[in-house]
Design goal:
The protein is mainly alpha-helical and 465 residues long. 55% of the residues lie in helices and 0% in strands. The chain is built from 23 helices and no strands. Helix 14 runs antiparallel to helix 15 and helix 20 runs antiparallel to helix 21.
Amino acid sequence: MGHALHRAVDDGVDVADLRDRWLAVGGHPEPLHSGASSTPGTAEQREVAVEILDEIDQRPAPIETTEPTDLDAIRAVAPAFGVRPAGPANQLGSASQLGSVNQLGSVNQLGSAGLLDRIHGAWTGRAAGCLLGKPVEKIPRRGIREILESTGRWPLTGWFTAEGLSPEVAARWPWNRRSAPTSLAENIDGMPEDDDLNFPMLNLSLLERHGAALDTSDVAQGWLAELPAGRVFTAERVAYRNLLLGIDPPATARVRNPFQDWIGAQIRGDVFGWVFPGEPARAAELAWRDAVLSHTRNGVYGEMFVAAACAASLVGSTVDDILDAGLSVVPPASRYAAAVRFARSLPAICADFEAAVDLIEQRYGHLHWVHVLNNTALMVTALVFGEGDFGRSVTLAVSGGWDTDSNGATVGSLLGGLSGLSSLPEYWVAPMRNRVASSLPGYDGIGFDRLARRTLAVSGRIGVT
């Protein structure tokens, strides 16, 4: 409930009366660090909570005018789409209709082998960045720094380790209990399961099955058929519940869902960019269809931004190419676009990355550690301060805290695509043994090389050869 009330206020919705009603039944009005309270609510609290969530859903948010979720409304204001007639959300326009970011290179310049190397690098980079952030997920920035200083590894330049960590620091900042056994330098043996990899792999399967005709209902059916409910969280878990209750998308994103602007959709969009290299707008439209199953507004923009950026990473040459492409598909007046612009401005006013993150915390520190805006600002800041260097960029993203594995994954994906596998440092590649663990049917133990070939094949069928 705290998350729902906080989100409403952040969106300009007056919920003072609802907050008072929640307090009257003994509810906690502030967002908790975790998505749910540590103790179950009373029967009365549960009944009142449902009524309050339903009431919040009915109250209009003034921000909708500048932050639309409707695809045609996004097309009308985001520069990548140009001026074109409105059409059904399940029809992609042609490359010439949708346009591309002018400075991007072409797929023809890369050739099939070059494009495969870029896609292979993107899959591998995503996994490496995710793996780096897994043991410190949920640990705040100050805790991450204390761990690294205790082990003599500040600033972060490589995998985390428990070797040399003082017992006092370990007790104060315990590793992520699910991840530590498989994600520290001393125990990495392949890429362990993570939703940051499961979602792109599931979306690859859906694209193999449906091609460019993929729509939100196809994604919903894919979740129910192939994605274990215990492997989804926050907005995705609410959407999954809503599907089981018989609610159709896109209402699945809006019904009793206080997590609509969190980062969950942003981690799902990479593969839509990889199958449309050099075509950010076409990638973003596919991402929109996936995102609206569970998110609205800025949560949707996050997936569109990343899909477009991934499309650019495979043919671009600089970090600016990537960020320009991402911004081109997002409503310019949105808070998401403002977060990206703010982050890109920081090198001009900050002496170093740490000073930049201080400013990000001042601006976005009131948001939950899984919200899309604070994490996007941090992710973009890591990219601009990392200046295209893979290791420096992913370590900056993770050392900044918040959603460490997701930010590391996205930064790793973008720079892996920009450089290609052939240019990724072996330090980051070798420990993963070209192997991913997953509970998705048919994916446990799959290699990044096979994922890359399958992605290239889909791209050849629906996008480019």
